[in-house]
Specification:
Largest sheet: 7 strands, mixed
Distance between the termini: 26 Å
CATH superfamily of the domain at 62-205: Immunoglobulins
Number of helices: 2
Shape: globular
Helix content: 10-25%
């Protein structure tokens, strides 16, 4: 990473630990140092598996002993930034007692500080926001305690620091359409603006 400022080097090193499988570190590396001519070959993702249903249609309900009735829990990681590109890991953990199956992309809705829905188009895939590797839809089986991950990406848009106008303060996420969404509050919010694009990668199993 010769020529990259120290703050970019530290950022890329930390993000690589979170999203190595998705190749996000390489994409942010290119954003931070566009003059690089050496490119690392990336393995081609296998073809998508046939579509199957998610964990099932589960109505919204209160969490019991820290685990929602759906049997899965959604959490978000640190929002990372480089050259105006934002990226945030989203983790889906099986906190129940039975296997859970997911296939495809998260179901997402973004709300502002007043909990009003924002005019955000949620994409299945990272393009046209960035050239981030996406594993594509595939069947992922999570045993109790196991997790899957998606990466949300967007481009910075102006946010009013005083009123938080333009910030996605609340993000509602479900494993798939038809499953109850869970509301999370990412640290710092999504500075996506009043209108914008939010890219997502397909769920991919987290391997320790």
């Amino acid at each position: 990473m010769t020529g990259i400022p120290a703050r970019h080097a530290l950022f890329l090193a930390g993000l690589a630990l979170l999203t190595t499988a998705c190749g996000l570190a390489a994409e942010l590396d290119r954003e931070a140092d566009p003059e690089r001519t050496a490119a690392q070959a990336r393995p081609t993702a296998p073809p998508p598996a046939p579509s199957v249903s998610g964990p099932g249609d589960t109505p919204p309900s209160a969490a019991v002993s820290g685990c929602p009735a759906t049997g899965v829990r959604v959490s978000t990681g640190m929002v990372n930034a480089a050259m105006g590109l934002r990226a945030m890991p989203v983790t889906l953990t099986n906190c129940g007692g039975a296997d859970q199956k997911v296939n495809g992309y998260p179901d997402v809705r973004v709300r502002d500080v007043e909990r009003r829905p924002m005019d955000v188009t949620v994409l299945k895939g990272p393009g046209p926001i960035t050239q981030l590797d996406d594993p594509g839809p595939r069947l992922v089986t999570l045993k109790p305690g196991e997790s899957a991950r998606s990466v949300f990406v967007w481009r910075y848009s102006a946010v009013d620091a005083a009123t938080l106008d333009g910030s996605g303060v609340y993000v509602e996420i479900a494993p798939s359409p038809g499953v109850a969404r869970q509301t999370v509050e990412p640290e710092g919010g999504l500075d996506i603006g009043d209108t914008g694009l939010l890219g997502t990668t397909a769920w991919q199993k987290v391997v320790d």
